[in-house]
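R.M. (postdoc): so does anyone remember the format we settled on? I'll just put the structure tokens first.
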């Protein structure tokens, strides 16, 4: 569920010879949903995606490009399932992994705007009493520190213990509060606010805080505060039985270089650090609701979320957002991994354009990000 920062170069490493001229000259209308992965693609975007997915060793994927005026371009390729063999379509759901962190940050900022919490509050204020003295830095790390991954609180995914628990009980239905014992009794990475280290625990603890303040589970809170107002009708937290529209997820679970179907493993369905499932279309709606229409956050909260950052190597980290740079201007967003799934979400504020890529696997071969390979086609050569 951790994410890596990026700086998108002017000329990303090319792994396939595909002319990406679609963005500047072609219509922005959506691609048809019909067709299977076996049909030879004729659209340049679909051709690019097909070759990318094949080179990466992914089962399938969907890309969406949302433009400022509201038009959206889609492409889908590969397979949504193998047994039975089913072609990918743009309306499939995927786990979005750490893209969920953006949503957790939005809910946190909404609560702060309503004066129900203060970003300067120590997170320990909202934890069950038995954990307040057991979680490193919880008496000093503020909500702001957690949002920026600058709390120093150790990551519950460090080591294999959580995954051993998943192996014993693959459909457990984990809740945020259940992971507190995995965060407790461990040494801090550093003093709060003095450094940056990505830690999924930060967003688990924010999920515990949100549920304590709202008196409801995250699925209900996010539904009311994000999914409904943004009209994200195909977005929810994961659950069993798996929705029929969910693309089957594939991962190299055995380390043998082969992908296996891992859809039915719960590695955080209900967790605030990565448990949301969504579609490419709904993630474009999320981008517009957050960055364009002001449906989710006011301008002051959004400005703070993207400027109050922690330095993080090749970029910075704001409030649940990667804040990066490209030769075409700033780029905000996140990437995400869930067992059997991967995702990219990149918003270019100067172009009012979002790129979303969702895949039902993790790349077996090393490839650049989809977003980095689309930039020249989208925006032309950098000045």
């Amino acid at each position: 569920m951790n994410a890596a920062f990026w700086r998108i170069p002017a000329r990303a490493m090319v792994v396939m010879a595909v002319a990406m001229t679609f963005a500047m000259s072609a219509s922005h209308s959506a691609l048809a949903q019909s067709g299977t992965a076996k049909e030879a693609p004729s659209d340049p975007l679909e051709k690019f995606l097909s070759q990318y997915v094949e080179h990466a060793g992914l089962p399938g994927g969907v890309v969406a490009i949302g433009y400022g005026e509201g038009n959206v371009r889609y492409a889908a390729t590969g397979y949504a399932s193998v047994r039975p063999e089913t072609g990918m379509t743009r309306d499939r759901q995927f786990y979005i992994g750490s893209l969920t962190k953006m949503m957790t940050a939005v809910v946190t900022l909404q609560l702060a705007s309503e004066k129900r919490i203060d970003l300067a509050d120590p997170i320990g204020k909202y934890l069950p009493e038995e954990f307040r003295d057991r979680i490193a830095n919880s008496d000093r790390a503020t909500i702001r520190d957690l949002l920026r991954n600058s709390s120093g609180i150790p990551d519950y995914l460090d080591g294999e213990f959580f995954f051993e628990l998943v192996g014993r009980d693959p459909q457990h239905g984990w809740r945020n509060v259940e992971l507190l014992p995995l965060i407790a009794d461990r040494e801090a990475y550093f003093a709060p606010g003095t450094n940056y280290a990505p830690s999924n625990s930060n967003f688990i603890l924010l999920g515990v805080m949100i549920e304590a303040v709202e008196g409801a589970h995250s699925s209900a809170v996010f539904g009311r505060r994000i999914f409904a107002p943004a009209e994200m009708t195909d977005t929810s937290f994961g659950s069993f039985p798996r929705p029929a529209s969910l693309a089957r997820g594939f991962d190299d679970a055995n380390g043998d270089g082969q992908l296996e179907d891992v859809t039915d493993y719960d590695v955080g369905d209900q967790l605030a650090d990565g448990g949301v499932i969504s579609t490419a279309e709904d993630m474009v709606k999320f981008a517009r609701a957050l960055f364009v229409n002001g449906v989710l956050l006011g301008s002051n909260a959004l400005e703070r979320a993207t400027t109050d950052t922690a330095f993080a190597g090749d970029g910075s980290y704001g409030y649940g957002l990667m804040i990066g740079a490209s030769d075409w201007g700033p780029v905000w967003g996140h990437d995400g991994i869930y067992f059997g799934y991967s995702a990219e979400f990149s918003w270019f504020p100067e172009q009012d354009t979002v790129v979303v890529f969702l895949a039902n696997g993790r790349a077996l071969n090393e490839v650049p990000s989809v977003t980095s390979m689309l930039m020249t086609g989208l925006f032309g050569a950098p000045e």
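R.M.: ...and that's the designed sequence above, right after the tokens. Also worth knowing: The chain has a mean pLDDT of 90. The longest strand covers residues 72-81.
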